[in-house]
Amino acid sequence: MVLKSRNAQRFAIVGGHVLTKTGFTRADILVEKDMIAGIGNCKGVKDKINAASCLVVPGLTNMHAHMGETIFRGTFEFSNLQEYIDKTEKTNLKMHDKSKALREISSSETIIEFLRSGITTVWAGRCDQACEVAGIRSFSGYMLMQSEKLQKYVNNFEVEFREFTTKIGATVLSNPFLFLHSLTYATKEIIGIAKMVIKEKHFPLMIHVAETIEEEKMIRKKTGRTSVRLLDENGLITGSTILVHCCNVTDSDIDIIKKRNATVVLCPTSNIRLKNNIPPFDKILKKGINVCVGTDGLATTTSKNIIDECLFLKDEFKTIKNFDWMTLITTNPAKALKINTGTLCKGYAADISVFEMKSQNNIQKIKNIDVMSILSMLKVKDVICAGNPLILDGKMTTMDEKKVESEFASLNRVIKDLWI
Ligand SMILES: [Zn+2]
C-alpha cells in the first residue's frame, strides 16, 4: 500500500538501496514518528513507500542560503558582490509595499527547489516560518547587518529578538542562530550585540568571511588584522561558529579556525559568479577542519543544486583522492552542531531522500566517492523530513507547486521590468 497521510506515525521505505558508510545495501527503513526505528526487513509494516530501483540517501543539508534572494534571479546584471547587494537594496526599497509578498513567494519557490533536489535541512536568515509550513527542517538566522532593509533588527534589538525567539520556540522544526552578515556590513554596535548573544544565548554564529579580496584588504588596512583574526580576538570564533566562503583566508587563519574547532561552509559557484577566488578547500580539508557546502542565494549561484556545488569542488580539486563527497552535505553539517541527521541508522532523524534509478545494474559496486556524480543524474522521487513525507512519488504534499511557480514568475517579471 502506498503511504497517503503526511503524518503517518509508522511506515517503511521498502526495497531500496540504502546508503551506508561502506556503500549501498539492499534494505528497508522503518520510520516511527520522526526517527529511524530500524533498518532491515520490514515485511509486516502496513504503510509503505516503494523504493525498488531507487537509491535511498540521508536528507541533504544546505548549510548556507538566502531565501529572499531567489526572486532576483535573472532580473538585473551585476558583476560583483557589491553591485549585487546595491541593486537588491534598491529593488527592496522600490518594492517596499510588496516586501511581505516578495519574501514569502521567494522563500516558497526556494523551498520547492531545495526539496526537489533532496534537501531536508536548510540554514538561512529568517527562514523559520516558511520552512515550518513546508515541513522542512531549518536553522533560522537573526539578521545583523547594516542595511536599510534590516535596520530594525539592530535599532530595535530587544523587541525584535524577543519576537524572533518566541516565533522559533513555537515551531517544531526550526532552531535559531545568529547571522552576522559580514565585517563589511557590521558596526561597533552590531559586533557588541553579536558578542552578547553568543555569550548569553549560546547561539551558533554564521558569518560571511573573507569572501572578496577587496573586503579583506580593507579590513587589514583598517585594523592590521585579517578578518578571521579580528573575529577571533573578539571571541567570535568558537566551536559553534560557521564561517561562510573563506575565499581569501591565509594559512594562519586556517590554523585559527582549526584551533577553535569552527566549521567552514563553501559556496564555490557563487564565488565564481561574483568573480571571487575559489576557497583553498584542499588546505582546509587537510587541516582536518569540518567543511560543509551551501548554495548561497539562488540568484548568485551558477549551479542547479547542492549536489552540483559539491561536484564543482570535486572537479576543481582533482588532487583530492578517496574523499567521501557526500559528507559535505550529510554528516559534516550534523557534526557542526552535534545533531542526529545525515546518517541512515537506527536512532537517527528520519530525514531521507529517495532518488529514482532507471537501471539497477552494479548498484552494489558504486563506491562512496562516486555517489554524488550518480545522484546528480537522478530525479528525486520521495523526500521525508522528521518522519513526514514532503514529496511522495514526485508530488509535493505540503506545497502548491503550480501556484507558487506562477506567483514567482509574475513577481520576478515585475522586478525585471524595474531594471529595463
Ligand atoms: Zn551568503
CATH topology (level 3) name of the largest domain: TIM Barrel
End-to-end distance? 53 Å
Strand content: 15-25%
Number of strands: 17
Rg calc: 21 Å
Question: Which residue ranges are poorly predicted, with pLDDT under 50 across at least 5 consecutive positions?
Answer: 1-6
| Mean pLDDT rating | 92
CATH architecture group name of the largest domain: Alpha-Beta Barrel
Structural class: alpha/beta
Please explain how this structure is put together.
It is built from 15 helices and 17 strands. With 420 residues, the protein is an alpha/beta fold. It has 2 domains: 10-59 and 343-396, Roll (Urease, subunit C, domain 1); 60-337, TIM Barrel, CATH 3.20.20.140. Strands 1, 2, 3, 4, 5, 14, 15, 16 and 17 form a 9-stranded mixed beta sheet that branches. Strand 9 (174-182), helix 6 (188-201) and strand 10 (205-209) form a beta-alpha-beta unit. The longest helix has 18 residues, at 99-116. The radius of gyration is 21 Å and the shape is globular. Mean pLDDT is 92; it is low at 1-6. Zinc ion (ZN) is lined by residues 64, 66, 208, 244, 296. Zinc ion is lined by residues 64, 66, 208, 244, 296.
Write the layout of secondary structure elements.
Blueprint: E1 10-20, E2 23-32, E3 35-40, E4 48-50, E5 54-58, E6 60-65, H1 81-94, H2 99-116, E7 119-125, H3 128-134, E8 137-144, H4 152-155, H5 157-169, E9 174-182, H6 188-201, E10 205-209, H7 213-223, H8 227-233, E11 241-245, H9 251-260, E12 263-266, H10 268-273, H11 281-286, E13 290-293, H12 306-316, H13 331-337, E14 352-356, H14 371-375, E15 379-385, E16 388-392, E17 395-396, H15 401-418
Parallel strand pairs: 1-4, 1-5, 6-7, 7-8, 8-9, 9-10, 10-11, 11-12, 12-13
Antiparallel strand pairs: 1-2, 2-3, 5-14, 14-15, 15-16, 16-17
Helix pairs in contact: 2-15
The chain binds zinc ion.
The site of zinc ion has 5 residues, from loops.
